[in-house]
Amino acid sequence: MTVRAPAKINLQLAVGPRRADGYHDLVTVFQAISLYDDVTVTDAVDPGEDRVLVSGEGADAVPVGRDNLALTAAAALAQAAGLSRDLTGPIEITIRKRIPVAAGLAGGSADAAAALVACNDLWHAGLSQERLREVAADVGSDVAFALVGGTAVGQGRGEHLTPALVSGEYHWVLAVADGALSTPEVYATLDRLRAARDPQLAGPGSRPGSGTALAAGGAPDAALDHALMGALRSGEPAAVGQTLSNDLQAAALSMFPMLRKTLAAGRELGALGALVAGSGPTCVFLAAGAERAVDLAVSLSGAGVCRAVARAAGPVPGASITARTP
Ligand code: C5P
């Protein structure tokens, strides 16, 4: 059973205050793009333990033990379906990576979403799409989006999804950085930057007498950018380019200063918009069309401001089965 799952980018990532559980309330606009991992799940040949094998882009950086997110997803699915793992037997998960690891593109979440779809089918678990999304949300904040794909507004931790109305196809150029960023550390840096700006508002519970997660952390409540949504509806890449935004960008830039150069290079080379992908360090550029994306990718490669350049179009569907093992 092989499932293909897409990377995501955030066209808007508005980060609200840190909550009492350590997560941040978000309003984000996700788009799934045509950069995929392939995840194959089969019954293990040898009895014993589950096994994870990873190949491709950044494979060495992916954990293959119990903390592998695809394996976590498989366990969560079995539990949600009331299936004992003694009954299902051990599985082998083979991940063919094309989505760069720890790059802000939700590659681990894509693999987890793929594992959910694959195990639901392999084990005839029969979970509905809605139930799968609930299980996905428990596995990670971005996993539910990797299931549904397309373009969607995410709220809460990012797991409450509403499909967005989008016209046209968007052509993206990705500048993959020579390095990685840890998502929790980028969020923590944002909290510190905000606290330094306004020490009165350092974080949840920091106001005397308050036991609740305050609308604090120096953060305004996150709100959807209606200019971006309008631009997406009318299918105008230039307007979309002008309205891209990411509240994590300042934190990512402070941790990875080289990204300023990368963003500046893309803008100078004619990108309609430029921003850091999620928690970074990948930078994303919007091109006016497919041909302009090719030109931009070539020029960006030549500029020596990143490790690798890739092109991808969006929106594309979420995790879907591409092959069934007989
Ligand atoms: O949910 P997930 O495991 O993908 O989140 C990774 C980390 O990113 C969390 O542990 C948290 O530090 C941060 N995060 C957050 N607020 C969100 C999503 C993620 O603070 N809405």
Tell me briefly what this model is.
This protein is 34% helix and 27% strand. It has helices spanning 69-80, 85-88, 107-122, 129-139, 143-148, 183-197, 226-234, 237-243, 249-255, 258-268, 290-303; strands at 2-18, 24-43, 51-56, 91-97, 151-156, 160-163, 170-176, 245-246, 273-276, 283-287, 308-314, 320-323.
Return the structural class.
alpha+beta
Distance between the ends: 9 Å
Q: Stretches where pLDDT falls below 50 for ≥5 residues? A: 204-217
The distinct ligands, each listed once, are: cytidine-5'-monophosphate
Shape: globular
Number of helical elements: 11
Strand content: 25-35%
Percent range of helical residues: 25-40%
- State Rg: 20 Å
Would you tell me the overall average pLDDT? Answer: 93
Order of helices and strands: EEEHHEHHHEEEHHHEHHEEHEE
* Assembly type: single chain
- Compute the number of strand runs: 12
Largest sheet: 8 strands, mixed
Give your account of this protein's structure:
With 326 residues, the chain is α+β, with helices and mostly antiparallel strands. Helix content is 34%, strand content 27%. The protein has helices at residues 69-80, 85-88, 107-122, 129-139, 143-148, 183-197, 226-234, 237-243, 249-255, 258-268, 290-303, and strands at residues 2-18, 24-43, 51-56, 91-97, 151-156, 160-163, 170-176, 245-246, 273-276, 283-287, 308-314, 320-323. The strands form two sheets. Strands 1, 2, 3, 4, 5, 6, 8 and 12 form an eight-stranded mixed β-sheet that branches. Strands 9-10-7-11 form a four-stranded antiparallel β-sheet. The longest helix has 16 residues, at 107-122. The chain is globular and about 55 Å long. It starts with a strand and ends with a strand. Mean pLDDT is 93; it is low at 204-217. The chain binds cytidine-5'-monophosphate. Cytidine-5'-monophosphate is lined by residues 22-24, 26, 140-142, 157-158, 183-184, 187.
